[in-house]
Amino acid sequence: MTDVAVSLATPVRFQQLVAAGDWEQAIKLLLEVPKNFPFVDRILLTDPEGTLMANRPRVIKAVDTSLAYTDWYQGVSRSKKPYVSEVYQRSGEPAVSVVAVAVPIRRQREADGILVLEVRLSAFLDWTKNIDVGPDGFIYFVDRKGSLVAHPNYLPEGKLVDFSAVPEVKKVLSGQRGVEVQVNPLDKEERIAAYEPVPGYGWGVVAAQSTAAALVIRGATLNRLLRIYGFIILLSCGLAYVIWRTLAERKMAEQESRKLNEELKQQTLQLEAANRELEAFSYSVSHDLRTPLRSINGYSQALLEDCDAILDSAAKSHLHRIRAATLRMGELIEGIIELSRVTRSEMRIENVNLSALAEEVAAELRASDPERAVQFQIAADACVRGDSRLLQAAIANLLGNAWKFTSKRPSAKIEFGVTHDKGARVFFVRDNGAGFDMAFVNKLFGAFQRLHHTSEFQGNGIGLATVHRIVYRHGGKVWAEGAVNKGATFYFTLPD
Fold first, then answer.
1. Is 184 helix (H, G, I), strand (E, B) or coil?
2. Angle at Cα 211 formed by Cα 208 and Cα 216, nearest 5°?
3. Helix, strand or coil for residue 57?
4. Rounded mean pLDDT of 406-423?
5. Using one digit for the tens of pLDDT, what is the confidence trace for 255-307?
6. In the chain, which end has fewer C-beta atoms inside a 10 angstrom radius, N or C?
7. How confident is the model at residue 466 (pLDDT cuts 50, 70, 90)?
8. Cβ–Cβ under 8 Å, residues 483 and 438
9. pLDDT score at 348
10. Are residues 128 and 113 in the same domain?
11. pLDDT > 80? residue 144
12. Which of 76, 92, 119 is the last residue of a domain?
């Protein structure tokens, strides 16, 4: 009601007409209000002193009458703000009980007039009739003096009814809110009443219900709540059982997991001990084999030198083959020793620049065979955390491998670079050399495994096995891709 009154009092044209004293033209702008807002029963325009200047529906004899005595005039004059009046009986025809909303009309600081909307009390019943308050329940309103504004059991257009003696009305007019059992002094009926003040206006609203009806509803509500609580208890018991079973199973699983972890730990310790023994055995055997090999090689050389005159060509050929075999065997033993050294040595983790290591290895390879035309492409600043000595050996083996297998290319290309896979860095060494058949890729990283004959490319088959062990010791992985005569690419990762 207040919002409607304010919206009607603020259009600029309306304010200009009121300021000019053209009251009839001003009120003509409001002729559609009762049609758009049916609860508005009558519209009044007064000057700042409360004298009625125009009204609709028109009552000519009321014009120029002073209304300064009314509650709404005194309220709006006092507060200078929109004001909702107490219930009063209109003096003009029809003489019904109404509530007025008064709004000052102003363009400047002082008001040029007052707009008043009179609302019949029946409108309040229309607004609340669809609110469900249960059987025998009802809602009623009182103004700031305790006069009844609207009550379903009283005629809204009748004489004013004073409810100020009703207990819940007394409390709501003092600003209290609550729910309690009361006895209405007018009809002596015991009922349950909920009361709440209307903030800012001094009115109160009360929802009441006979005690008998309220207790029936409360009993039905309690029964529903009991059923709901019973269901919740059953559900909680079932849930508690499920949780208990889950926790019990989890505890058993944790115990089984600890048992398996302990067994795995023991197996790992046993495996590590066996590996250490095997590595120590390999290292010892390799060292022990070098002495007899040197003897075989030395005696073969002595026979060739001392008995050259009495040895025929077949014997000399046999001796040369013996020497070549011992040299080959020596290389294999050195490879075993080197592989064992990579596995046995203690790691020292530090910052390592793989790019710098690759540059050093490339320079050494160029110096070893300056006549070769090999194009190196090395990515910059590929830094990792690891053992610099072991990583230098891995880079040397990979680049040396690429150098060897591009030896038959007139324009060889070798690249060391970095790519990314699922957010992780992947390092690689790529060449355009002899390549390999992917059907045998699983043999590449095994010790003494070769995919090319020694007559094509020299080597002992230890280099890639060394790379594999170095990367594995750092917690990474290594793999390869290639094709025959189309080059090869070796990838490896290192944890950040």
1. coil
2. 110
3. coil
4. 89
5. 888 889 888 888 877 776 666 665 666 666 666 666 777 778 787 787 878 88
6. C
7. confident
8. yes
9. 87
10. no
11. yes
12. 119
- 321: in domain: no
Question: What separation in angstroms does the CA of 38 have from each of 8, 102, 119, 406, 437?
Answer: 15, 17, 9, 99, 94
d(CA 476, CA 461): 21
Q: Is the pLDDT of residue 334 over 70?
A: no
Q: Bridge partners of 224?
A: none
Residues 40 and 113 in one domain: yes
Burial of 375 (0-12, 13-18, 19+ CB in 10 A): exposed
Residue among 332, 322, 333 nearest 299 (CA): 322
> Which tokens in the block code for residue 353?
């620049």
Say if 207 falls within a structural domain: yes
Rounded to a whole number of angstroms, the CA Rg of the chain reads: 53
Q: How far apart are CA 11 and CA 29, in angstroms?
A: 10
Buried b / exposed e over 196-206, threshold 16 CB at 10 Å, is: ebeeeebbbbb
What pLDDT is attached to residue 45?
Answer: 94
Between 427 and 281, name the one with better pLDDT.
427
Q: Give the pLDDT mean for 156-172.
A: 85
The two counts, helices (H) then strands (E), for the chain are 12, 18
Q: Report the pLDDT averaged over residues 315-334.
A: 73
Give the pLDDT mean for 203-226: 80
Number of domains in the chain: 3
From 214, 234, 263, give the residue that closes a domain: 214
| Residue 328 pLDDT | 65
Q: What are phi and psi of 78, to 5 degrees?
A: -70, -45
| Residues in contact with 310: Cβ distance below 8 Å, sequence separation at least 6, in sequence order | none
Q: Residue 225: pLDDT above 80?
A: yes
Residue 279, CA distances (Å) to 146, 288, 338, 345, 435 in order: 103, 14, 11, 11, 32
State in Å, rounded, how far the first CA of the chain is from the last one: 71
Bridge partners (DSSP) listed for residue 203: 198
For 423, the domain range is 346-492
Q: How far apart are CA 283 and CA 281, in angstroms?
A: 5
Cis omega before residue 38 (within 30°)?
no
339 within 8 A of 462, measured Cβ to Cβ: yes
Distances from the Cα of 321 to the Cαs of 3, 304, 330, 493, in angstroms? 115, 12, 14, 43
77 and 150 both lie in a single domain: no
* Tokens standing for residue 178: 């609550």
Burial class of residue 372, CB neighbours in 10 A (0-12, 13-18, 19+): middle
Query: Whole-model pTM above 0.85?
Result: no
Percent of the chain with pLDDT over 90: 34
Q: Which residue has the tokens 């060391």?
A: 416
Indicate the average pLDDT of the chain.
84
